[in-house]
Amino acid sequence: MEGVGNNFMTMNDVDDISDISDMNDMNDSMSSESTENDNQQNHQNVTATAPDNRAAANDAPARTPDLAWLNAAKETITQWAYIMLRDADDHDIDWDWVRSLDLVHGIGVAEPADLEPGAASSAHDLLKADLAIRDRLEAIIAKMSMVFMRDFDRHIKTYELPRALAYADRRLTDQIDLLRDRGVAEGLWTVTDEDRERVTVPVLHATEAGPLTDDDLADVQDRTAEIVNARAEKRKADREKREASRHERQMALFEADEKHYGSIEAGPDESAPADSSSDAGSPDYLIEGQPVINDDNPAVPDVEQLHANETAVPEMRYEKSRHAAAEHVAARAAAAPKDYWRAVYLPGRDVDNVMGIDLETNGTEPYRAYIIDVGFEYMNMKSPRPTQLPGDYRYDKDYYESGDAYDQHRFSFGVTPEAARHGNAFIIQLTGIDISQRTGAEFPLFDEDPAAQADLLKRLTTQPFVAHMATFEHSFFMLNVAGYAEAYRNGHVTIIDTLPMSRLWDEGSIPCEGHPDGDNTLDAYAKRQGALREDDAERHLGLEDTHIMLLAMKHHLTQLKAEARGPWGPGGKAGVGGKRIVNYRRRSWRR
């Protein structure tokens, strides 16, 4: 067998998960010693699960991935160019430039020899050129998801092009990292990671004895924070503009009512003529002497009053009260709590068979980082677990009980030799995974493993999948799993997120200075729901995190049902719930 891709489909005795299933945000660190022990235990678990497959992977020669799809993806550029004229930063897109990119062999300007310290080329100039390419490319990728999902007429047939561009961008990022490392080795600069509002970026500082100054380094600084923060501010300004426009339209409606209906203040007025329709005895003086003008809407006069062109109150008094009412309504609307956008990912009352999944990656951006660890398992929220499946799976944490989970899977993937050479100390500390050791046939690259992608896609579309802060997994699936974006757009993927369950339905999530909406990390949520010991910590491995998430979800749903809250409360949803694209077909009306 070749790599983990084939293991994806053979590590479990169940051939087809559809036979047993219905169609229905990193705080902890650990010492390097315990981390290494955990990592070794993780590998032992993998080996114990499928020793034959792992041995085959060790003996298998390194395979050459089929990258023909990268060039084939360029064939859809015409489709994208038809409806996508500008990128995420509102710049015109040169699609001929995109077409000229060598996605297979690399889009950076440096050759392999240029990445070595002491090379004759200029690390500064190469880094400057590569950063410019990446900024330009990522501005295009950042816009493509929205364009694809809003392409209701299906001009764009597939999402292959964004995946291909992201594939090339990951390799370009590897090259950028090694060029920075070369500059450090040559004494040109030092690198520190610094928080810049929404993101953390590597910042270059000139060395005291080096030939460059901080001013010389201005054109090789990472602009990711600047770009991301600018986009966020633009989105905020756009929202405020929409709110202002909504308020303006509301006021215009009040003005239109005034011109169309005249005075429409409800209730009798002593200054009005004795024969006014708003006086007692008129048809509009209703039950129990409650003076209104219209049964259905007190702010709208009845037909007789309109025909008589009567005025219930003097015009000046009407204008004053009418505009006061308009301002009052607008003020109440502005003060109303905004809808929590993640609420759409909440489960419904009838949710049952789900697949929980968690990814570990060597970064947070799906167009720069690699998937290195995948863990998923199944659990029924209502019906009994399949009895024919083993229930004695052993997790990385010995005290984890299988509970109602079944069909557990853990898969390890690799990174490019360049990414391995650069390494990632933070990921070692967080997960125990040393990406410098993740190369070779034993660790295929997920974005080069079509068999693994196909098998995962089949599972993701068979039943709802659950994740904690599911937008993270979703973003990686979009740019790594062939066919996922298309399936999601067509309504074949349902996503449930336990993060909004924690925020909206768990009273134990108490707001504090560090967590204004409460501590809704998976670690905190699992502890509150009894799925993780108070003296323990989230493991930051895919399968273990998936397990405590599903246990917490099931415990939480059981409690909510008993108390008639959550999905069983006033604002709950029937059915499975979760986020799913609903396609409304156009109807042809015939006379």
Automatic annotation (TrEMBL):
Its domain of life reads Bacteria
Kindly give the InterPro entries that the UniProt entry links to this protein.
RNaseH-like_sf, RNaseH_sf
A GO molecular function assigned to this protein is:
nucleic acid binding
Compositionally biased region (Low complexity): 20-39, 269-284
Ranges where the record places region Disordered: 1-44, 255-300
The protein depicted here goes by the name DNA polymerase III
Q: What is the lineage of its organism?
A: Bacteria, Bacillati, Actinomycetota, Actinomycetes, Bifidobacteriales
